[in-house]
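Pinned message: reference record for Transposase
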Amino acid sequence: MTACDSVNPDRWQRILAGVLDSFAGRFGRVEPRRTAAAFVTGLLSDLEVKTCWQLAEQAGHARPDAMQRLLFRAVWDADAVRNDLRQLIAERFGAPDAVLIPDETGDLKKGVHTVGVQRQYTGTAGRIENSQVGVFLAYASEHGHTLIDRRVYLPVSWTDDRDRCRAAAVPDDVGFATRSELAADMLTAALDAGMPAGWVAADEAYGNSSVFRAHLREHGLGYVLAVSRSHLIPLDGGKTRVRADQVAADLPDSAWQRRSAGAGSKGPRVYDWAWLDDVCTDADPDDGGRHSLLIRRNSTTRELAFYRCWTPHPTTLAQLVRVAGIRWTVEESFQAAKSQVGLDQHQVRRWDSWHRFTILALAALAVLAICAADAATHESDAPTDSGLIRLTANEIRRLINTCIIRPISDLAHRFHWSQWRRRHQARARQSHYTRRLNLELQQ
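Predicted structure (tokens):
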């Protein structure tokens, strides 16, 4: 077996077809089914911008109408497609010790009409910006990882304004939910659907929520959840509470063990770890599990991170460190989803259109994730070291685009789209000028 054996366009073509076939039955008519397949394929292409216009041109359509109709008026259930993709990932990556990872990401947006948009903090910008926040759920096991679900976050400014919600097609029964409540809802849905998982890992936004932690214990899911340095740790059965950073400061040198949290791009991610077993037991003394505090210390900067842990059965430090390290796969999935399949490039305002675009983007991401896992399997079977790094999602998408996707090269088609865009933009400009003139006349 050679290094080139892991690059197999025929096998990747079958993977792409398998992902598309997994939810093809959700479309009652052949036209939206074909459009959805072209949409997902277009998201895998080398288009710099992946909106309906560009995707339609890539697919060889004369106009963007079919792509826009798919996101707006076509009859299909985005959550049903989500269920099919989730089942496919369970079959491909499923493992009893897999980790479910909720996290959020923001997209900077202009205006006030796009669903969920307001001035709010987003980690994408690292500050408060006019943005839209989505809460996502990732699935990670030894076989691979990808995003499997999503929810758009609606701030109170939206849920308290039902006229604004109706204008964005938000269902009347959708009320305010915190981000941790959205995450809990997705976790419950995944478990109810039979997703095999033994753990949950998440950052401070979820770990600091006692309600979220209790929800996981009710489902028997072990967890390794980051908490803030000021988080109060219950000791002595809850009789005393001490800040997490103070607990770390009182530890002797012998309490720390050096372990790797997994492989990184620059080598093993080695940290010092301290594990305080049988603490944090104030929540539910009858839950039958084991509460503990895990502390991570950067061996160079001495920076600390803190995790509240719970397991339904006895566990080891190595297992907790593994779960803590796996949480970073959700960041890799976000990066791949945005840079490779255009997760943040949607130009939709409505509730239903956002959920439709994002699930099709997750379908394209699933293609890359499965292809990457497939390539890794064949690379690990190679008898000798090829001297190459493993195929990344970025490289796989390039190869898929080169070997499978056939970009439209007909000049007449390109000239047609150039004229269509210029005509559409001229009409839009005229409409803006007319609207502005009317406003000035009214004043």
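Pinned by admin. Summary line: The first helix runs from residue 9 to 22.
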